[in-house]
Amino acid sequence: MTTAESSSHHVYVGADVVVKIIDAAGHTRLNREIALAPHLPAGLTPPLLNSGHHRLGTRDVRYACYTRARGAAPGMGMPGVDAATARSLAEEAVQRLDRLHSWTPSAHIGRILGEPLDHGGFTSRSALVAEIEKLAALNRDGTVPRRLVDGLTAIAEHAPDQARAVVPVHADCHWDNWLVQEQRVTALLDFEWARFGEPADDWFFLARFSGPHAHTVLDVIARATTTSQDALRAACEIREATYLASDLCIALEQPATHSRMATERLRALEELTVGRYWWPRTPMPS
């Protein structure tokens, strides 16, 4: 088996199986994925073959073994993907996400999706304002320029009072978590952050991490959901502001271990607030 890159697990890929392993004392999101996997809409994600705990020396580990789906991830920003292929892949991804959003889980699975999860996503205007205030308080050395904090505050002023928790969402469906073979989507991976939310929680990830194809992907989503692009842009902007505020708080609280994340999030925050990423003066390139 070969190893696959992962920020939170040890992942091993074989010819027919994929194994995810994590220290049992680590986060519990893999437990969530294991509980959900057998109940998700058919064909959405690779089947779970086995899971459990194993004693490895002096440590307890949690593992999950899945059938290996064919294909490879397009990757963040969809590097090397042409416009026509990006549109086709986005159309298939939207169709699969619609199956997830239309799924009615059983009462037991619904309770799992409804369990509290510190997902960093948008829940309410008051929560977003509180997160920005926390960021400002942590920003004692001025790591985050004041104009960027003010930009977040301006976005928060236009946020809805409350997000709705009405449909199952993946909540991490960037292009590193999709598999594609011969320009066709084959699977959506990593349901550890799945929860109840709004479809926009997924549309944000799909569009934001499409690189030069963001405008194309927004157009695909708008057409498929009969939603105006302005409404989509506003929903995505609020969600990005929330994730960036949350991640920057983590980075400022733990600077020794999150310096790289701080640099990446500051760059994204500049694009969001100064560059007005979701509201380009000229159309996003496709």
Q: What does the model show?
A:
This protein folds into 2 domains: 2-67, Phosphorylase Kinase, domain 1; 83-273, Alpha-Beta Complex (Aminoglycoside 3'-phosphotransferase, Chain: A, domain 2). Helix content is 42%, strand content 16%. It is built from 9 helices and 9 strands. The protein has helices spanning 29-36, 83-102, 107-113, 125-138, 146-156, 200-208, 214-225, 229-253, 259-273; strands spanning 2-4, 10-13, 17-23, 48-56, 59-67, 167-169, 178-181, 184-188, 195-197. A 5-stranded antiparallel sheet has the order 1-2-3-5-4, covered by helices on one side. A two-stranded antiparallel ribbon has the order 6-9. Helix 6 packs antiparallel against helix 7 and helix 6 packs across helix 8. The protein is globular and about 50 Å long. The mean pLDDT is 94.
List the helices and strands and how they pair.
Elements: E1 2-4, E2 10-13, E3 17-23, H1 29-36, E4 48-56, E5 59-67, H2 83-102, H3 107-113, H4 125-138, H5 146-156, E6 167-169, E7 178-181, E8 184-188, E9 195-197, H6 200-208, H7 214-225, H8 229-253, H9 259-273
Helix pairs in contact: 2-7, 4-5, 4-8, 5-9, 6-7, 6-8, 8-9
